[in-house]
Amino acid sequence: MRTDSPQTIFRKDYTPPSYLVETVELGFDLDPARTIVANRITLRHNPDSPSAGKGGADLVLHGEDIELVALRMNGVALNPGQYILGTNTLTIKKAPLNVVLEIETICVPENNTTLSGLYVSNGSFYTQCEAEGFRRITYFPDRPDVMAKYTVMLRADKEKYPVLLSNGNLVEEGDLDDGRHYAKWEDPFKKPSYLFALVAAKLVCQEEKFKLADGRDVLLQVWVEEGNLDKTDYAMQSLKNSIRWDEERWGLELDLDRFMIVAVGDFNMGAMENKGLNIFNTKFVLANPATATDVDYAGIEAVVGHEYFHNWTGNRVTCRDWFQLSLKEGLTVFRDQEFSADMIGTASGRAVTRIDQVRTLRQAQFPEDSGPMAHPVRPDSFVEINNFYTVTVYEKGAEVVRMYQTLLGREGFRKGMDLYFQRHDGQAVTCDDFRAAMESANGRDLTQFERWYSQAGTPILTAKGEYDADARRYVLTLAQRCPPTPGQPEKQPFHIPVAVGLLGPLGADLPLNQAGDTTVVLELTEAEQTFTFDGIGAVPVPSLLRDFSAPVILEYPYSDEDLLHLFRHDSDPVNRWEAGQRLAMSRLLKLTAAAQRGEELELDYTFIAAQRALLLDDTLDAAFREQALILPSESVIADQMEVVDPHAIHTARQFMRRTIASVLRTELLNAYAANQITGPYSPDAVSAGKRGLKNLALAYLLAGKDGHAVNMARRQFEEATNMTDRAAALTALIHSGADASEQLQAFYDQFKGEALVVDKWFAMQASAPTTDVAHVRELMGHPAFTLKTPNRARSLLFSFANANPSQFHAHDGSGYEFWAEHVIKLDALNPQVASRFARSMDRWRRYPPALQEHMRRALEKVAGATKLSNDVMEVVSKALAN
Ligand code: TRP
Ligand code: ZN
Q1: What is the CATH code for 752-882?
Q2: In sequence order, what are the beta bridge partners of 279?
Q3: Does the pLDDT value for residue 764 go beyond 80?
Q4: Residues of the chain with CATH 2.60.40.1840
Q5: pTM of structure
Q6: Which residue intervals define the domain Peptidase M1 alanyl aminopeptidase Ig-like fold in the entry (predicted)?
Q7: Where in the chain is the domain with CATH 2.60.40.1730?
């Protein structure tokens, strides 16, 4: 049981470590029930630390859930009187300035269900040390500003664990007695403890020699369980593309002779960038056409890239403290986004990736920014750091990095990056250091820009345009405000880059200056500013915030005519899509209101006609047409409402889909036929776009309750030659309410040996609007279900709570009871996963009083549970706070 109450940690309290670590020598005797860790660290007092006292300083090491069996300092065994063993610390008072510590501890990997530290998954050993997992392996100053060189000796049974891996280079291996063997690894680079990793497992690998730009040959390996070697090609290809891209776009080269990726089925997050030994959730490695969808392939490319790019943005230059997390995560997400966009290459392909990013922000980050867990990109405080691996730190952080590039230009931004590496290679630094590099390299003052790091909340940008025909002048007034967030009642103006274009009456871009530019980036720094455009011959329609140039909410009094004009003609594809979303949203909100009043629902033909024209426009990529035809999700609609009515929203959106389907039946059938692909499967963007549009058409036709469509879907399900088409057909069937019991069974029987496909099987059922709480409970009883594997728990529980709002928010509160029960159950196994699930209730105050009452009770039930982790406690107590 927890003895101390959870402590809040503040950024302002940062102090440099009292001791620095020079070298770490780790010895592991691996045994699932009793692993012995021998740790020899060389430390020296940090002259920059304020702790220097007379007669030495206090040496504090972290430790958690490990048993101390021996401790020696400078060759002499310490007895318990010479150190203090706290709950999670080991302190040696007034230690000498130079210290060699030898620490022996024991841990029990097979009982470690938290998946943090050293744990067992399917009989093999893996580690996860970010953020504070290393202290669950050995006593250590477990903070990212303590960087050291590591040597690692692994010993384990040779038959059960034939593969022994750690960071860096393999320097020695051989056999021991009793059927055991060993491997010694050395990492030539200094690193923080969170980048330590080991794997001792029964695995096989796909490997390849690869030539770097400087001519060096490196060894690339992708390690997986036996039977999965037919699913490693795309990860390997993505790794090679990542290495090439980092060289070409940023001049950054791989610094090791060997780079390994290991896939593991039990993993809390997507993947981890351990130096030279990236450990991945299987979801972001394993793919072949039969088991993985286009979305899965895109995820693999992005995550392989992301982890690889961390080698420079995260590992070579790391974070001073965890408040700086976005320094590495925001920057690395930006890099992986650019990588994925460059891999597609075409302008419209890039736009589709950008639209996806905007969607994620609206779907997840804006709600976070206006909820009880709102925090700045660089938080000021936290209870549990694991709760701050958020869409704000990652995705909004990436937007902040993107804004530097928008303000400084691509070249200026590159100069800033070069200077950042020049100044800070091998260091643990801050977001301010990054900003300073951008400033110095470009001779610009970015003081105000810091507010993007310090102020939480989504700014609201309002725009007003006035046209003076006589003066041929257009005056644009931009204003900004930002709503209060917890702890930040008042906000100062942000430095916002607003990319603007003006469309003439025929839809063409008007030249905006002497140079003839058709897009300019305005810099809004005040609460309100006006910008003047001369030589404008006719009243224009403004295209604002092109390419989503800042993570803000834009308010402009667009008429339907304006939006239709932009939807048809905007040269900026992101704003073209955006105009369509605005047209749809205004109707969805009206329909929702009508549904609440029990009125008959009606959809205007203007909107459908615009959708029709877009669907028929063969000059547009299928991928873009698909994006433009996807209606705002139920949760994005909810975010627009003062008081959220999930049931009315569902009714309204379903009505809209049904109406579009019946009016555009012929066009949708044609789109379905025209976007069939023959020949072998390829996950490239063009093919994926066609499949996407085709499958969207199918889903629409099914939503239209067309009997013919049911047969089409069943046939596609049976004849599909890839998972994208098979899963899309099955999902569309289930979600339309058609009888798909036979197909569900067949799908399960065919893929029951593929864990990632079984996850899909659970997820598509959990998110079906026909699946209620009782059905979810029934699915939990399925032999394939387990709460212990995060992917499986997410596939059922998270899909239900986050992707099935009309059932989760059942009037009787049964969805919330289910939630409370399982937050508590999950918490006993894995606090990180439980805490993420707990966040499904963040926005509870936005619901009608009757639902709120049920939600409050569920939250209080969790808050009052015994033995609650700090992770979940932080989330529910912030949700309940005023
Ligand atoms: N640094 C990892 C990434 O973004 C994130 C991560 C992986 C992580 N595993 C984790 C964060 C466990 C916290 C806990 O690539
Ligand atoms: Zn990352």
Answers
A1: 1.25.50.10
A2: 262, 272
A3: yes
A4: 460-551
A5: 0.98
A6: 457-556
A7: 1-201
Sequence ranges of the chain with CATH classification 1.25.50.10: 752-882
Q: Are 730 and 701 in contact (CB under 8 A)?
A: no
Take atom 2 of ligand 1 and give the residue whose Cα is closest: 272
Q: What is the DSSP string of 162-227?
A: -EEEESSEEEEEEE-STTEEEEEEEEEEEEEGGG--EEEE--EEEEEEEE-TTS-EEEEEEEE-TT
Ligand 1 contact via 195 beta carbon (within 6 Å): no
What gap in Å lies between CA 785 and CA 405, rounded to an integer? 45
Name which CATH class applies to 460-551: mainly beta
User: Torsion over CA of 617, 623, 624 and 627, rounded to 10 degrees?
Assistant: 120
Question: What fold is seen in the domain 1-201?
Answer: Immunoglobulin-like (2.60.40)
Q: Is 336 in the pocket of ligand 1 (CB under 6 A)?
A: no
Tokens of 819: 């939630």
Distance CA 832, CA 372 (A): 18
- Best residue for ligand 1 mutational test, from 268, 791, 835, 836 (most atoms within 8 Å of Cβ): 268
Torsion angles phi and psi, residue 668, rounded to 5: -70, -40
Angle between helix axes 605-616 and 646-663 (nearest 10 degrees) is 60
| Element containing residue 253 per DSSP (H, E) | none
The string of DSSP letters for 258-281 reads EEEEEEESS-SSSEE--TTEEEEE
pLDDT tens-digit profile of 453-511?
999 999 999 999 999 999 999 999 999 999 999 999 999 999 999 999 999 999 999 99
In ligand 1, the atom with minimum distance to the C-alpha of 115 is 12
